């Protein structure tokens, strides 16, 4: 893969005009929340990027993340960005298999030690290394070994970033995220289940042009994860007016009202879905009539149920309520009876006193 | 990797709510059973009026302020009304709250818009500030105020403030503020049966008793 063509040649073979490329650079620049004045710099950096060696490790995952980035709407400029890196190891995409594949990884690591970019999708099982191995190497060992020589790590998808679905209760494999294991390398989390293709390529482009982007407390690039879905949702005016769809098929749903009551997690979810959208900017889940699941947040699978409104308790609280009524009534009866008995006893023990007694005692 | 704010929110929506609910409902039922079983001493005198009807009437009539109260205690009068109305509107007409009631009891009603909810919330908070101020400055009221009263004021204003902050993202992480809002409500629920907050339920009994006693004697109440 070392003699892969550079971006300008790739554009030529794919029939992408310079104009389209500049347009792409402009949208990428605004997406990365950079000043428009930097567009030429982004374009120049992308055209002359050193094509860093990239090693992509897939652990406990569903390949949804790879599907998302490769099958988005090919062929596009995003694909070209993806192609402009030297992807030296990706066991789903590479032609080589078995020992040859592992040899490619080792070679790339040796040739570019300290300089390659490591991309990880999928979580790492800690309970038993045998739960997930590649070429007889456990995910944990492979991650540690490959991370050691990496310049930086990009954790693609919620599984790699936060544990994702494998980490969901009861987490049978003891799955953890990359950042739970690797502590001494810069890690960029690009969560989403899967992440938006242009967000993945955008982060790569940022890394190629300006290095590591500014991250939030959860390790996500602020440019793509800075705002909540709720804040940028086009249904927000309905939320503010108090107009809600009650079912998936009522008048409110047809009128495009807010999906909060159908379980929308938009208010606690940070992602670019509402602005960048999916499938080349066609739509996003809420626009298609489905509430946000909150897939860019840690533990989104365990947030009490996808169709339960955020304000509804997640547990089986009704049982607790009934038990409390019974318990409260029982204690109430007991305490009232005790008080009554005390009162009766006090009446019984009450000694009547008349004037003679008082005279006597004084 | 975990998000502490999310974990706290899930605790507040899960075990936290269950605990608060058990204490809230259990405590209310406990105190009501006590009140009902203890009852009142039988009145042996012949009835001169209808105690039952007068009792029922009093439950509602005491919500109408006494004549002259506005002049006598304007802050208590206005502040009290504004706070109670604001609290009820914000609680019963904000959509996320209706969603909870719907989940619990299967009934729902239309939600109010943001402008209404936020205005009444802000007014209710101002009312609590005024009520607290009058308790602190009026010497008579100050000497009558106990720790319990201040606690109740604080506990009832916190959900309003935290809710406002969470919805408007005034400060802090929105997920964290939502968790804090739920926790503040849970604190209110836990304190409810054991403080003067219980008046929100027991006022019915107190007023009925008062009204029916007077009614039996043939007096208006
Ligand atoms: S984040 Fe979602 S799409 Fe990506 S590997 Fe995990 S389960 Fe699959
Ligand atoms: S649909 Fe979801 S994200 Fe959009 S306004 Fe309603 S609650 Fe917020």
Short description, anyone?
The complex is a heterodimer of chains A (362) and B (221). Chain A has helices spanning 7-13, 18-31, 39-48, 64-70, 77-83, 98-111, 139-148, 157-162, 164-167, 178-181, 197-210, 222-225, 229-232, 236-241, 251-254, 273-276, 317-349, 355-361; strands spanning 53-58, 86-90, 116-121, 124-125, 133-134, 137-138, 150-156, 175-176, 187-190.
Description:
The model of chain A has no long low-confidence stretch (mean pLDDT 88). Chain A has three domains: 7-225, Rossmann fold; 229-302, Cytochrome-c3 Hydrogenase, Chain A, domain 2, CATH 4.10.480.10; 317-361. Chain A is of the alpha/beta class. In chain A, strands 2-1-3-7-9 form a five-stranded parallel beta sheet, sandwiched between helices. Chain A has a two-stranded antiparallel sheet with strand order 4-8. Chain A has a two-stranded antiparallel ribbon with strand order 5-6. Chain A has 18 helices and nine strands. Chain A has helices spanning 7-13, 18-31, 39-48, 64-70, 77-83, 98-111, 139-148, 157-162, 164-167, 178-181, 197-210, 222-225, 229-232, 236-241, 251-254, 273-276, 317-349, 355-361; strands at residues 53-58, 86-90, 116-121, 124-125, 133-134, 137-138, 150-156, 175-176, 187-190. In chain A, β5 (133-134) and β6 (137-138) form a beta hairpin. Chain B has one domain (4-39, 50-216): Transmembrane di-heme cytochromes, Chain C (Fumarate Reductase Cytochrome B subunit). In chain B, 76% of the residues lie in helices and 0% in strands. Chain B has eleven helices and no strands. Chain B has helices spanning 4-13, 15-38, 51-61, 69-72, 74-93, 95-105, 114-137, 139-144, 147-168, 174-191, 199-216. At the A-B interface, α14 and α17 of A face α1, α2, α6 and α10 of B. The complex binds iron/sulfur cluster (2 copies). The site of one iron/sulfur cluster has 14 residues of chain A, from α13 and α14. Chain A: [4Fe-4S] cluster 2 binds at residues 230, 233, 258, 264.
